[in-house]
Amino acid sequence: MNLKRYLPILQWAPGYSRGDATSDLIAAAIVTVMLIPQSLAYALLAGLPAQVGLYASILPLVAYAVFGTSRTLSVGPVAVVSLMTAAALAPLAELGSTEYIAGAVLIAVMSGLMLTVMGILKLGFLANFLSHPVISGFISASGLVIAASQLKHLLGVQASGHNLLDIGTSLLDAFGDINTPTLLVGAGTLLFLCWARHGLKPLLVKLGLTLRLADILTKTAPILAVLITTLLAWYFRLDQQGVRLVGEIPSGLPSFTLPSLDTALWSQLAVSALLISVVGFVESVSVGQTLAAKRRQRIDPDQELIGLGTANLSAGFSGGMPVTGGFSRSVVNFDAGAETPAAGAYAAVGIALATLFLTPAIAWLPQATLAATIIVAVVTLVDLPALLRTFRYSRTDFGAMLATIVLTLVHSVEAGIIAGVGLSIGLFLYRTSRPHCAVLGRVPGTEHFRNILRHDVEVCPKVTFLRVDESLYFANARFLEETVIELVARELELKDLVLVCPAVNLIDASALESLEAMNERLSDAGVRLHLSEVKGPVMDRLKGTELLERMGGQVFLSTYQAWRTLTGHHSAMAPSER
Amino acid sequence: MNLKRYLPILQWAPGYSRGDATSDLIAAAIVTVMLIPQSLAYALLAGLPAQVGLYASILPLVAYAVFGTSRTLSVGPVAVVSLMTAAALAPLAELGSTEYIAGAVLIAVMSGLMLTVMGILKLGFLANFLSHPVISGFISASGLVIAASQLKHLLGVQASGHNLLDIGTSLLDAFGDINTPTLLVGAGTLLFLCWARHGLKPLLVKLGLTLRLADILTKTAPILAVLITTLLAWYFRLDQQGVRLVGEIPSGLPSFTLPSLDTALWSQLAVSALLISVVGFVESVSVGQTLAAKRRQRIDPDQELIGLGTANLSAGFSGGMPVTGGFSRSVVNFDAGAETPAAGAYAAVGIALATLFLTPAIAWLPQATLAATIIVAVVTLVDLPALLRTFRYSRTDFGAMLATIVLTLVHSVEAGIIAGVGLSIGLFLYRTSRPHCAVLGRVPGTEHFRNILRHDVEVCPKVTFLRVDESLYFANARFLEETVIELVARELELKDLVLVCPAVNLIDASALESLEAMNERLSDAGVRLHLSEVKGPVMDRLKGTELLERMGGQVFLSTYQAWRTLTGHHSAMAPSER
Predict the structure, then answer these.
(1) Cα A484 to Cα A500: distance, rounded to the nearest angstrom
(2) Quick one: A487 exposed, middle or buried, by C-beta within 10 A (0-12, 13-18, 19+)?
(3) Chains A and B: how many Cβ contacts under 8 Å?
């Protein structure tokens, strides 16, 4: 049983049927065709030689097929992670240098180790600290930065930078150097891909294809663009016109690579590797869960960490770059009918064949074509409706989202994500440090108690029912103390104060001390402190503390009981209550 | 009114009476006598020349008298802040060098600025993030480190370090160099002070003194030790025996000092200054609140920030060191009968006179005497019962406390406090990320619902009432989703799921998306999602979201209403319910 848990392949491989194999092989063929340009493009985006993208699409797929729990997730280089890799390596090594490539390998290995260890320690919940608004804002902003970073390839100029400001100024400086043939190739590809996205599918359906086939063919439009522009580049010798091509890349399978053991480099890259791991994990899990839900399957987040961890380790040791489960490729795999992770392993074989036999053709591929495919892909990452929805629902969440977006756009991806996480945690703590408190009255004739400011309720001047809508812990302990002291100073007739605790899920040691201090002050002022509706787990812990011993009042099971005992209205109640 | 708020002196100065003045003058005389050795000792502890301690006990007291809200707090150098200052400066400058002294001035100025700005922005609540267990553990551990750091003065050897490990090894290395006369002075003072603490008061009472006078005289025992050892040192020329003395210090009032404007130094000291500010503020406020409560006075934490901020600014600009409200000196001031902050201002005059006329005598004071007074003072900081109490009440809080203690002891004060704060926030988030959930049943014959695992209650197999005991936010959004999915997979007859929300104080944007996703999945499984007991503020926000539109079920005011509507037991209920 346990072995099956850690090796999910054992869950599906024994029952693997001929039918499954057929479905998986078809899906693999489609995914392979799509993966080739995507892998090359994301390597380019990460500032790496094109073949590194291919290497990262072979062994990682096999590793994920063995250790991953999603049946349809397709693992490989993805846009956001590639951008983060480039941003992490930029300050450490010159673009394209041996050290730069070694840095990418090291990030993959470190990220693989981190993910695997987190999986073994079951730390998948850590990813929850990336709130939805932060991750959505981060991905939208990254999409814009990525699109901007590709403009230089489209224009055929030199430019650099990993945020909109740097990219913008460096593009403006290079504006005079625009290469017209490059622009024609790039803009042409861009227009074709945009059209394919909206116009190709209806056209194919009109030509008599089934909806599903038309859909899949539409998604392979990038490979068509790649084929055509490669042919054009070769036929017209476009490199002599200043069009930059992918150029010669070593043919053959990747060889075993050892990561650098330079501890200084490890510590310099640690934060980046961690952020890449977490962002990659969150992206992958949300894609995996969305797809699994559609087929009523489940994925196990902790095992996913191991799946992605081993995928990254094998990417690193085979000279690749950091990988994760990508959205577009997984959707293609899913739509093409993949039944098991074996589809991924078959696609790995497809990519391996490409590195063996297709490299001479790939050499003629214009970089502008790849840039156009990236731009078209990442523009879909920008999710404006999510921005609006968050703004309407909660200004606090929107604040964290906006900080993430602005910092990602104008500073760096890392600053954006760190600020987002820090701000969402800080704002949550701030909210809980000033909890909503309500003075309650009784809904006439019932056992229910409601906020006196919102409902028409009975009150008793000698007894105040105060509901605190938050767990009591260090951040709000003093706030409660002050609220109660002010209340007591205001209500001169007060004899009994009942803290109504259905929303108190925890009383920590700091809050306990505050309650004890509060009890002292109340008894000095001649007011008895009571508690009502204390939850089981909270009560278990309070038993045996000095608070309960010293408290002048009682602990009531229900607020209504407290009302009956303290207001002395027992006989005035409706007969139904007896 | 507003002026009075920001200048608390206006609250008491107009009504200042002759009686107040008499009380304040008496208290000031006693505090002055006590402050002189304490100021010298804490300057020594911070690695600063002795006069710096005196300088920090003049103007800051005047500033606090004008801006502070506590009537009895006594401001000046205190043990923990002095240790933190030494730890902050150690890596930057050589002990006792001009740069080192300038660093202390800069920390005082930065801390003054930070506190004042925090006060103006009303950020006093930030101090709440230092939980009681963390601050108590930190102060206990600091007490031990401080005591250990003074052993070298007691033994007359050279040693260094700001944690137990470093101090221990460096003391072991120097063990052969022990200077016997120094040890005799130091150990003698230590024994005298320990005896004074327990034996002097009963003796004085037996000799016929009133209890109060005996108490105050006991607390001035350190000054007696100072007088005697100074006389001994002078009479026997102990400096020629290797006993280190305070030595010649410039006589006269401090002169105006400008802090360094070196931005690199500012940024190097920023974190230390912030930690010193926060720790000093927390210590001062807790002392101030304790004393204020005894006389039914109040202090205003935000104005306290301004009081301490201006005190530190004036300490910095007069060549002093960081200051805060100290426990022992404030208690002496309180016990001696101080009525208003004017007592502090009078004590400032006393210290000023000392810098003018007593410096020749102070030159003969042995450092071992000061070390002994420090050790006796800080040992009271170690609070073992608090450790035990926290261990019994909550292992989580104890974990944060222990981490603080261990890191403070073996690494550094800054690491200790940062780890403590980080860990308490992290553990709080972890707890809230896996909230307590309870399936509820109805207490027979009532409108109350309780956990089916803890109470004997009625249930209905087609309707599940799930109470989540936590606000729903990003950290637990996915956890809830998984809990519900598992529940639905287990309860095959389930038709209606009611989320009982009295403990849900907040639903953030991430949790809203999770609820929407959960609603989709439930409706796919043929289960309707309902909500009950949604709080007013939460409901206000949910209105207008897609969740309410798409939800198959209803929102019930009470769980009992949901029970009546969904279980169809209406007619089966007790007649009292009609």
Answers:
(1) 13
(2) middle
(3) 162
- Going by DSSP bridges, is the β-strand pair B463-468/B496-500 parallel, antiparallel, or unpaired? parallel
Tell me the C-alpha distance between A341 and A256, whole Å: 24
B130–chain A Cβ distance below 8 A for any pair: yes
Q: How far is B571 from chain A (nearest CA, A)?
A: 16
- What residues contact A498, with CB distance under 8 A and at least 6 apart? A463, A464, A465, A466, A530, A531, A532, A553, A556, A559, A562, A566
pLDDT at B20 over 80: yes
Tell whether A246 is within 8 A of chain B (Cβ). Answer: no
Q: Which residues are within 8 A (CB) of A264 and not within 5 positions of it... i.e. 6 or more apart?
A: none
Scan residues 415-444 of A and list those with Cβ closer than 8 Å to B. 424-425, 428-429, 431-436, 438
| Residues comprising chain B, all counted | 578
For B9-45, give the secondary structure using H, E and C. HHHHHHHCCHHHHHHHHHHHHHHHHHHHHHHHHHHHH
d(CA B482, CA B490): 12
- Single-letter amino acid code for the residue at A238: L
Pick from A302, A308, A306: nearest CA to A73: A308
Residues B351, B356, B359, B362, CA torsion sign: negative
**What whole-number distance in Å separates Cα of residue A516 and Cα of residue A494?**
19
Taking only the tens place, the pLDDT of each residue in B440-477 is: 999 998 888 989 998 899 998 899 999 998 889 998 88
Query: How far is B189 from B376, CA to CA, in rounded Å?
Result: 10
H or E segment to which residue A37 belongs: helix A18-45
- Please enumerate in sequence order all residues whose Cβ is within 8 A of that of B81, keeping only pairs 6 or more positions apart, or say none: B276, B279, B280, B283, B322, B323, B324
The 10s digit of each residue's pLDDT in A386-442 is: 899 999 999 999 999 999 999 999 998 888 988 998 899 888 888 888 888 889 999
Cβ burial, residue A126 (10 Å; 0-12/13-18/19+): middle
- Give B423's DSSP letter: H
Q: What are the strands of the beta sheet with A437-442, ordered from one edge?
A: A449-451, A437-442, A463-468, A496-500, A528-532, A555-556
Q: Cβ B132–A477 below 8 Å, yes or no?
A: yes
Q: Which two tokens stand for residue B118?
A: 């925090």
Across the interface, whether the CB atoms of B396 and A508 are under 8 A apart is answered: yes
Token pair, residue B364, equals: 């003969």
Please indicate whether, in this complex, the C-beta atoms of B509 and A390 are within 8 angstroms of each other: yes
- Residue type for B343, please? A
Query: What's the CA gap between A358 and A371, in Å, rounded?
Result: 20
Its sign, for the CA torsion B478, B480, B483, B485, is: negative
List where CATH 3.30.750.24 sits in chain B: 437-577
ipTM of the complex: 0.80
- Chain B CB within 8 Å of residue A473 CB: yes
Candidate from B397, B474, B505 with C-beta closest to A469: B505
Shortest alpha-carbon distance between residue A427 and chain B (Å):
11
Alpha-carbon distances of B184 from A26, B41, B188, B192, B232, rounded to whole Å? 91, 19, 6, 12, 12
Across the interface, of A470, A521, A544, the residue whose CB is closest to B505 is A470
> Which helix (H) or strand (E) segment is B231 a member of?
helix B221-235
Residue A445 contacts B where some CB pair is shorter than 8 Å: no
Q: What is the pTM of this model?
A: 0.80
Beta-carbon separation of B469 and A535 below 8 A: yes
Give the CATH number of domain A437-577.
Answer: 3.30.750.24
Set of chain A residues whose Cβ sits within 8 Å of the Cβ of B425: 425, 429
Q: Is B132 on the interface with A (CB under 8 A)?
A: yes
Rounded CA separation A505/A503 (Å): 6
Q: Are B111 and B322 in contact (CB under 8 A)?
A: yes
Tens of pLDDT, residue by residue over A530-563, are 999 998 889 999 988 889 989 989 999 889 999 9
